[in-house]
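Dear V.,

Thank you for sending over the compound details. I've combined the ligand you provided, zinc ion, with the protein sequence from our construct and run the structure prediction for the complex. I'm sharing the raw inputs here so there's no ambiguity about protonation or stereochemistry in the SMILES, which I know was a concern on your side last time.
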Amino acid sequence: MHRRLLAAAGMALAGLALSASPPPEAPAVPKAEIGAWGIDLTGMDQTVKPGDDFYNYVNGNWDKQAVIPPDRSSIGSFQQLQILSEQRMRIIVADLEAKPYRRLSREERKLRDFYDAFVDVKQIEARGLVPAYADLLRIAQLKDHADVARLMGSPKLAAGSIFGLGIGVDDKNSNAYVVQLSAAGLGMPDRDYYLLDNKEIAATREAYKTYLTTMLTLVGERNPQERAAKVFALETEIAKLHWTRADRRDRDKTYNPMSYAEVKALAPEFAWDAFFSDTGIPLKGGARQMIVGEKSAFPALAKLFASTPVDVWRDYLAIHYLHSYADCLPKAFDDADFAFYGTVIGGRSEKFERETRAVRMIDREMGEALGKLYVARYFPPVAKARAQELVANLLKAYAQDIRSLPWMSDATKEKALEKVRLFTPRLGYPDKWRDYSALEIRRNDLIGNVQRSALFEWNRNLRRIDGPVDKSEWDMTPSTVNAYYSRSFNSITFPAAILQPPFFDPNADDAVNYGGIGVVIGHEISHGFDDQGSKYDGAGNMRSWWTDEDRTKFEKNTAMLAAQYDTYEPLPGEHIRGRQTLGENIADFAGLTIALKAYHISLGGKPAPVLDGFTGDQRVFLSLAQVWRTKYREGELRNRILTDVHSPGPFRVRGMTRNVDEWYRAFDVKPGDKYYLPPEQRVRLW
Ligand SMILES: [Zn+2]
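Below is the predicted structure of the protein with zinc ion bound, written out as structure tokens.
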């Protein structure tokens, strides 16, 4: 996300506010940041009937006026917070730059040096390919398939590989780490980009071939076009072997425990020993346990590996390497990379400003060092306390809901309640910050910094591979505008950057907070009970705890939800994929149901106030729709339909509301309205 936006960013956020005029009196009453009580009423289009298109009813006027900045692929509530977060990280770095170097802590020096190395485009330009020379030479000198596999496994290079390698928590033993292997190796975002037969995707493929040719040309290779065609053909063969996204998120299908010796026997044509040789993983004479993801794809990928000549692998690896490091290389590489990934795939016409890219990079590589400074400045303790209260209410509502479910047996209910009791909410930032003292950062060695960061992270995982699991660890940095549920930790995590308007505002109306962050909290909790999360127990282990009968009823209901989403068509001819997005759609629907329930509990039996003519329930729904307001560029929207497990924002709003009875009552939605569903076709889960 880029630069010029910074000034605009603050405005964009403030621009959500109804009015800038000061309150006439009683200045002691704090005013919500957006509108008078939390909703941008000017963004609504009240000529639209709520039952015909609830998204446009709430966001129609906003949608008509919102302009996607040239360097973004979408704009909306999330993106505006993202821009704000980048702006804040830049302010933090500007402060580090303003202080005398000697007055900075060692960690602050690393942040500043990393940042400076990235924004020093003069030096990057002047040095050309020299910083990448040793790596490129190593690729050019690969002699045989074992060499190729060894490079694919290099944790330092992190370039291309047909097999992905990681160390993570074991799905069936949340107290142990395990080696994880998956199918990988594509340059475009998904197999569908190689295989789908439609005009836009075919054009993307042509652009990708041009990109491959350009990269080979830029490093001075001969016959670049012909060689690019071979790389493209190779990736197309890899794509044919990849599983669909829907299958890849099925935890039963992707959990295949095997010993290292068994992995080798499964896919003998791959040079596994060479692949692991630089990783440092103790293989225990073949006994090391590994979890294989897309198991059925492994033998064929290994065969493809062996039957592809080494010179094609060299070109493939060189291109993947250049893509990984494009932003650290001279402008010609960076531009070529952006022309494909930024413009063709993402629909963006401008890169982010260099400074914004720099803070995004240090957020990625040293996010907890930067995050420490971020929360000290932008996350007041009061925000944490209020958010904690909300989370507690949502969990209470969830437990109450489970007890009242007509379709679930008592035996399953007991286990579900236990899982709710064992939830760990985490807000703002981790209790324990990551220690970066072993990471070396140099002001004049950008690629080296990126590689040392990758190695630092790898070694951190490697060191503890046979040790206890660190459950205090976060997978998102505090400045991230997002939230997540961890199945293995049974925890829900909300970084500081999402705990602000329009999601959460201590000065806004309660209904608005329940419809905003409340729905997000409910969404994350319910990932513990979505089609995949429900396969894990309260201790974070994949283990069936449902009675067969309950599981069948649950799956029948979720199949209904998948079928509903299959009918939505964000782009002509491109439908949402109900199964690929099922977990997220379940979480959306459940999050809304539970947030409403929690809001009702919070009223303590008193009637909700009416504000500007809107009832309490209405305001919960307005807030939910405001949070998901999003406008996408076409390429980005297509990319999301093909690759994202979330439905596009407008369809999240339309899809979740029509299954909730309270929505029909709140907005008097009737048969004949476009999104009306007869009661028997509404999904009943929570
Ligand atoms: Zn989710």
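A first observation: The longest helix spans residues 354-378.

Warm regards,
I. M.
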